[in-house]
């Protein structure tokens, strides 16, 4: 385990990504407070992303629209356009890669890079080169904040700290934490500023008499491992103290999709139809990557009635018939527990307990191998047709996306650079 004496990591986070992409692509939105909503005419849902101008007026992500309008009466609400965001993501990756190799894509609007020795003494110059290339080749409204530090954990925290330097500005920041200056920048932060420390973990730390960043830094690695209940706590201690922590690669854990339903499509029958699309999309991605699922989960977020969830075991399958049959069984269970006149605001479907499709072991109590293989061949033929024509041409059962034409967001974006794939207005 090394203790770097120079900056070695860069963390980049785009500012209000969905909203800034909308501003870059649509000139009439530029300079205005913008809020992105799940679909058009969504007055009874939330703002899923907002522009820098809206954030300076007190609007936050996942804020109810009524509250957003109260804080910023002139906010302009636009429905999300996921395909536009994916094209922007791919184009941005291409431009950034021309300046510095991208080490890991963390999400659609975050990435990390290793800083070359030649750039470690002048990181601000590197940040300016990246921002200038984005502004010149894609557009000036897609701004980003950049953090530099000895390791990825500290670089991410520096990036977040540099995003909002004062009450009059937001985004387009750059924070540089040289190892020689540590831990002074950390001591200005709160415990909740550590990625992964939510309200529950913060309360747990308070009960352990850890009330500040100074208290946490003074804690021993073994104590932090005990507080977190696993090796994550110990790794975090070393990362906060500037060590180069290399987390071992983890296997794929799940494939899932979620969807906010439009107000007029929130009855259980609408949610059931939408869940079929989500399960089918998750199954496609799982098959493409060569996995089988051993369990399927369904969760529903109800308006005024809390939430509910169910899961069901699967015999290591990946074909649509097996996944949709299990989903039907889950809905049969859920139907009995839903309150009268239930309204489903959000839902999600997840495939997990994954095993490699090439290593499938048959259940000796379930003689379904011949049936499974027939359905797998049928599903492979369906996938081939849909890939060839670039859309859902064939499906098992009806394919009826809810209003808005967007079937659901996946839990992780696997991007492939596509230079100039994002077309913007001048």
UniProtKB/TrEMBL annotation:
PROSITE patterns hit by this protein: UMUC (PS50173)
Keyword Signal among UniProt keywords: no
Keyword Cell membrane assigned: no
Keywords from the named record: DNA-directed DNA polymerase, Mutator protein, Nucleotidyltransferase, Transferase
EC number per UniProt: 2.7.7.7
Domain UmuC: 9-198
Catalysed reactions, semicolon-separated: DNA(n) + a 2'-deoxyribonucleoside 5'-triphosphate = DNA(n+1) + diphosphate
Any Gene Ontology CC annotation: cytosol
Cofactor(s) the record lists: Mg(2+)
GO molecular function annotations of the record: damaged DNA binding; DNA-directed DNA polymerase activity
Pfam families listed in its UniProt record: IMS (PF00817), IMS_C (PF11799), IMS_HHH_1 (PF21999)
GO biological process: DNA repair; error-prone translesion synthesis; SOS response
Function: Poorly processive, error-prone DNA polymerase involved in untargeted mutagenesis. Copies undamaged DNA at stalled replication forks, which arise in vivo from mismatched or misaligned primer ends. These misaligned primers can be extended by PolIV. Exhibits no 3'-5' exonuclease (proofreading) activity. May be involved in translesional synthesis, in conjunction with the beta clamp from PolIII.
Family membership noted in the UniProt record: Belongs to the DNA polymerase type-Y family.
Subunit structure: Monomer.
Name of the protein in its database record: DNA-directed DNA polymerase
Organism name: Methylocapsa palsarum
């Amino acid at each position: 385990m090394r203790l770097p004496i120079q900056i070695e990591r860069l963390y980049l986070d785009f500012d209000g990504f969905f909203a800034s992409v909308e501003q870059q692509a649509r000139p009439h939105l530029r300079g205005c407070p913008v809020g992105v909503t799940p679909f058009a005419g969504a007055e009874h849902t939330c703002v899923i992303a907002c522009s820098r101008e809206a954030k300076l007026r007190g609007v936050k992500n996942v804020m109810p629209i009524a509250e957003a309008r109260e804080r910023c009466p002139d906010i302009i609400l636009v429905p999300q356009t996921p395909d536009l965001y994916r094209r922007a993501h791919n184009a941005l990756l291409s431009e950034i890669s021309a300046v510095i190799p991208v080490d890991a894509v963390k999400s659609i609007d975050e990435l990390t890079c290793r800083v070359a020795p030649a750039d470690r003494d002048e990181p601000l110059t590197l940040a300016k080169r990246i921002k200038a290339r984005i502004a010149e080749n894609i557009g000036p409204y897609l701004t980003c904040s950049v953090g530099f530090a000895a390791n990825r954990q500290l670089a991410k925290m520096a990036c977040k700290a540099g995003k909002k330097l004062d009450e009059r500005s937001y985004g387009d920041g750059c924070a540089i934490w040289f190892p020689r200056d540590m831990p002074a920048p950390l001591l200005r932060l709160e415990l909740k500023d550590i990625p992964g420390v939510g309200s529950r973990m913060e309360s747990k730390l308070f009960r352990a008499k850890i009330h500040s960043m100074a208290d946490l830094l003074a804690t021993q690695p073994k104590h932090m491992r005990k507080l977190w209940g696993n090796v994550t706590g110990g790794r975090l201690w070393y990362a906060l103290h500037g060590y180069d922590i290399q987390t071992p690669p983890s296997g794929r854990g799940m494939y899932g999709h979620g969807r906010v339903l439009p107000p007029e499509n929130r009855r259980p029958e609408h949610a059931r139809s939408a869940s079929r699309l989500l399960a089918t999309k998750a199954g496609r991605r799982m098959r493409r990557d060569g996995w089988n699922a051993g369990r399927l989960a369904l969760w529903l977020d109800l308006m005024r009635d809390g939430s509910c969830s169910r899961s069901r075991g699967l015999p290591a399958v990946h074909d649509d018939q097996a996944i949709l049959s299990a989903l039907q069984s889950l809905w049969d269970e859920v139907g009995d527990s839903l309150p009268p006149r239930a309204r489903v605001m959000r839902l999600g479907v997840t495939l997990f307990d994954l095993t490699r499709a090439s290593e499938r072991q048959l259940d000796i109590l379930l003689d379904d191998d011949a049936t499974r293989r027939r359905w797998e061949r049928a599903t492979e033929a369906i996938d081939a047709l849909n890939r060839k024509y670039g859309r859902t041409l064939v499906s098992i059962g009806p394919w009826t996306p809810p209003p808005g034409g967007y079937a659901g967001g996946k839990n992780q974006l696997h991007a492939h650079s596509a230079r100039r794939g994002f077309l913007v207005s001048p």
